[in-house]
Amino acid sequence: MKVTLLKPENYTRSLWKNGGGIFTDIAGAYRADAPAKDWSSLLWRFASTPIMTPGPFSYMPGVDRLQMVVRGRGLVLKAPEREFDERNPFTTVRFTGELEIVTELEAGPVEVVNLMARRNAAEIELVALRESGDRRLSAGTHLVYAACGDCHIRLDGEDFAITDGSTLRVELSEASEVALVSGLVVLGSIQVAG
């Protein structure tokens, strides 16, 4: 097990693919053989971003996306013949990057967390842990994000305090157990194919 604390002052910023906003990049992985870390070499990415005004989402062919509102409320994603309801915070929605989506903000700006992965390159999961108790983690990369205040977790019997906005990156070579002790965390899990 390898554990690294990622702090907000070390996060990077990048433009949305369509240029309509700015991501706060928390963690990610790109193809090792790629000449640049860009959208074409992306394997997976964990980021937060404000959505300040209604508008279209970026077109991301071949990318699967998970999203969750962590601040604010009232977000709805509208696609042809389908709607993704994120009106209540900490609700995860899954959609593909090919889908034409336009946002609707019913109660003002929101902040969301995105976990995205190149299709067939990684399996991803995004959940909010709000109640104390154990959760099994499979081998892979896990990101424990303190999205709205300080929190405290126990990982294989070891205690970790995570300050507001920070992320504990956990690399597991075998399955483990995590327990939320206090606060609320957003847990992003990534299992890279192969």
TrEMBL record:
Coiled-coil ranges (or none): none
InterPro entries: RmlC-like_jellyroll, RmlC_Cupin_sf, Uncharacterised_HutD/Ves
Domain of life: Bacteria
Pfam families: HutD (PF05962)
PANTHER family named in the record: PROTEIN VES
Protein name as catalogued: HutD-family protein
